[in-house]
Structures are given as structure tokens and as C-alpha cells.
Amino acid sequence: MKEIALKYGCNPNQKPSRIFMADGSDLPVEVLNGRPGYINFLDALNGWQLVSELKEATGLPAATSFKHVSPAGAAVGLPLTDVLRKIYWVDDQGDLSPLASAYARARGADRMSSFGDFISLSDVCDVDTAKLIKREVSDGVIAPGYTDEALAILRSKKNGNYNVIQIDPSYRPAEIERKQVFGVTFEQGHNNFKISPDLFTNIVTKNKDIPENALRDMMISLITLKYTQSNSVCYVKDGQAIGIGAGQQSRIHCTRLAGQKADNWWLRQSPQVLSLPFVDGIRRADRDNAIDVYMGEEYMDLLADGAWERTFTKKPPVFTREEKRAWLDKLTDVTLGSDAFFPFGDNIERAHKSGVKYVAEPGGSIRDDQVIETADKYGMVMAFTGMRLFHH
Hints:
The protein has helices spanning 38-58, 82-87, 98-108, 111-114, 127-134, 148-155, 212-226, 251-267, 271-274, 284-295, 300-303, 321-328, 346-352, 368-377, and strands at residues 3-6, 17-20, 29-33, 62-67, 70-76, 117-121, 138-143, 163-167, 176-181, 184-189, 232-237, 240-246, 334-338, 356-361, 381-384. By secondary structure, the chain is of the alpha/beta class.
């Protein structure tokens, strides 16, 4: 197929809309079901690059959950703990395949942001993964292939209208890429930079010990950032992004936003949240929203008399600021990646509050000494990569 006509562009008034290959060759994608839109394809093609690079770098199946051209979550297929299975709502699914585990992690890390996602999978979609996708609110999926049974499951989603895209895994883009803005054509070389362990050899802190799992998480953080709208930072733990801050003009705001998401991921594993007494039959989205409000500063919107009864069988106690801080202090060995240098030590101060121990950033700020000094204060390991990863 040389082109695919789309219903409209970013917005309904932006017509006509299509995707095609400028050189007249066949597209590297095939629509197996549904009618993907303009933003769907932007998410799909960015997400596919992310997961294919994760798979190449780690050797593990990978998945990402994309929303509005940035990942809400990204992960590789490591086994899930019992607690993670519970907070990701997959504890009723039995043993999961590595690919399904990757998607459960990618979707589950920030379920608020992942609502209505577009999914990218590094490997052929299997039944386990299709079953997880079937139960979530999602716009579509892209993968290099699908088993017959998995495809049948996905085709039954959204009354038969769920978007399923297959991509040729051997496809490589041209070395030069172009796009137009306001009628002006921009041209640049495709970002072929490979993120590997060799990128983290310039360790600038006193602590220089990077274990293998932290090295893997450093690669995950930077590969995720390579396809995240800048400015951006990414917190990673145990093979998955747990907090992504995207598109902020100030880097400290990225660090705070992503840090709050990482905090929420950890707070969801606390006894206070795990024991919330939800009413039977509550919808998954309503349950996720309730947890988010319960952990936040507007908790009384949920716990007020006349309100809590719609969500809980009994009124939960307030999750106090002191209790939350005590639980957050147990979060350790988190990795933080940044797509450009940290200009001030305040980013490291904020990262410390979310258990960060390992940091990967390009370096090059006139205040690098201050940033390194702050990292040394907390015994962190910081590697200067020398490589900026802006994405727009």
C-alpha cells in the first residue's frame, strides 16, 4: 500500500489527511483492523522506534504506552512481583508472557496518563498480551506481527473497530528526514544514535559503582527520552519507567512532574492504598481516578460524607502527609535520565526525594560542579553522556 487516507489530521477541521512515502514506495505498515488516525500513526511510529531500540539494547521484549506523541510508560519484560501484579490489576491473569509483563508494566506505571493509549510492542503480539489490551481503554496497537488468536481477540475490541497495525520490522528510514511547518520545509539527519553501556563510562561523582541492573535502567531512561517531547526527564526502576515528565519549558518542572508520578507509583504499593475497600463492580477508570485523588492533596473530594460511599464500602482513613513521606523514604535505587543537562542542583535535590541513586545526563552546564556536588552529597552515581536527546 502506497498511501493511507485518514479521516482528518490533528483536528477534525484539518482535511485532507493521509500518510504516504514521498519516494513512491510502499508504506512499511499495514492496517489489519480499524481506521487509525493522524495522531494514532504519530504515536505508533514513535512508539515502535522506542520499543525496537529497547529490545536491541536489553535483549528483552519491550512495550510502551503512548499518549499525544510522548510515552506515558515504557518497560521491558521482566517478571512481576505480587504487589506489582495487584497495582497493575493483572493478579487475576495467572503467569504472563514476557511481552505481556512488559505491557502490564508500561500501562500500569501511570494509569492516569495511559488511559486511551496507543500501544507499541517489540515482538509478535501473543494471547497473554492481547487479553491485557482487550480489557483496557486504548486506541490501538502496533507490532511486527500477531498470532491468529491474539488478532481475533484484538479485532473483537471496540465493537470490531479497534486499530491494529502491523509494521515491517526490517524497515529502516532514509538517512535524511523532512517535515513542514507553516509551509517551510525542515531537513535533518535521522537520529540514529545508539544508546549502549559504553555511554555511561564518564562517571563524574565520587561514587562510581553502577551495577548491571542500574546500567540497564540508564539505557531504558535515555531510550525512552529519545522519543519523548522535550524538555523531558525519566525515572526508571527495575526495568520500567515509573515517572516521565515531558514537554515542560523548565527542566526542574520536568523533574518535579516526573518525580510526582514516580512517587505515586510507589505510594500505590503502600498498605494504605492496597487495602482500600472498593465497592463491587467499580469500573477500572473510576478506581484509578479514586486512587489518584486519595493519594493527592484533594483527598477530601473523595472522602467527604456523601462522596466516599459511591466508591468504598467503608470510609478509608486519611493518608497523611507524614505517612506518605515515611513510605516514600523506603523507595531506593531509582535511576534518573535527562535529555539535556541539569542547569542547577535543585533537580538533584528533587530527585533525591524520590529515591534516585543513579543519574544519566549529558553534562555541559556552567554549573556542572554544583550539580555534581549535590549528587555527591547523597552518594549518587552520575554519568555524563555528552549526548543531548531532544525530540520535537
